[in-house]
Amino acid sequence: MDVELSALHWVYLAFIVFILALLIKRRDTTMICVVGILVLALIATESASDSVSGIFNSFIYATKELIGTIFIISIIVSMSRVMIRTGINEIMVRPLTGFMRTPALAFWGIGMIMMVSSWFFWPSPGVALVGAVLLPAAVRVGLPALGAAMAMNLFGHGIALSGDYIIQGAPKLTADAAGLPVSEVMEASVPLVIVMGAVTTALAFWFMYRDRKNGTWRDGLVEGGQSALSADAGSVSLSLRAKRWSAIVIPILFLLDVVAMFVYDLQGGDATALIGGTAVLILIVLTLMAHRNKGLEEITSYMVDGFQFGFKIFGPVIPIAAFFYLGDSAFTELLGENLPEGSHGIVNDLGVALADAVPVNGIVGSLTLSVTGAITGLDGSGFSGISLAGSVANMFATAIGSGAATLTALGQVAAIWVGGGTLIPWALIPAAAICGVSPFELARRNLKPVLIGLGATTIVAMFLV
């Protein structure tokens, strides 16, 4: 059913444009997002009290949606700080310094390891594992923490997640919506994922190299310049034997987590929970070993430090996430049944309207699927709108007479690269927080390479349709 766009849709779209403009200009968007929530609530409820309450309720909703990510980041930070204070981290990463001899090797090495890890158990747990082990070695050879975050982010939340060839969550959603076999969509996505990944990562590395050479590079570190994995409050005595054994056992424990993910088919939140629980146990054991009779109190202290860091990182993100969540399921939950009849959410309605408003041919179809996928990715999940991309692809392919699988894969790639964690600040927080850099600076760094890569991928898709 076609849904007529209402004032809600146009106001939401206007605020999206305004927010993106502010991000490009490196301005803070918190106030604009709060105003956007208030205006949308006023239009929907026509009640001042409900609208003001909607601001707070939207914050609560966003926090509930993000709490898993907040916790895993906080716990990994807690564990990593006790590892650094005891010197275990130094011993653990020493063998990797032989491989990561230059910033370039560190960038591409971290990226490839992150991509493979993310294929098997998705990017968020991968960020925690790869970052905790490889970031110190990469920084030591001269790769900026922001550069490491770019590598983990682009290869994990970009290349690996947009193809999703092992877990197959993304291609199943789009294939089902397009009425196609999953294998057909996956096959069609291979050249698009390769082009998107190659162009984007190459450009990201080149821009980093150029700006560092010209002296225009910004490290993008959080306040105080401390990484989540490098903040140190002083060393703690631990025997060399204990350090060496710990440096061996800790990676083995995380490797066993990976094995368990395969054996028990754990993915997404379940995989993250396994990593988080392992990190908590490691934190407890290491703290008791290092602090002995003061261990009970120090465990709490490390956890408090980790959660302070986690909520400090997420503080400016929650208002922005709250606004964009209103574009999807959060609207009805927070503001009641106030959308037009037949609506599937503000963001999805805008995507359908865009598809209906343009003429149909291979070129326009490819352009429309890229833009539609990107728009549906603006809610920051990357997955909420890919079913819409599949539906729109099916509609265009029916009119064109070919290219259903290619158009479906293109919409999937666009939605996940934009919303899955490379451009939307709160979606790329795992990599930013692990590396101790601003998610907004990481988003700005990714913007140009991702947009150019998406343009190149769209052109390739035009020839494949």
Automatic annotation (TrEMBL):
UniProt entry keywords in alphabetical sequence: Membrane, Transmembrane, Transmembrane helix
Which species? Cohnella thailandensis
UniProt protein name: Transporter
Question: Per the UniProt record, which residue ranges are transmembrane?
Answer: 6-24, 31-60, 66-84, 188-209, 245-264, 270-289, 309-327, 414-435, 447-464
Lineage: superkingdom: Bacteria
Q: Where is the signal peptide?
A: none
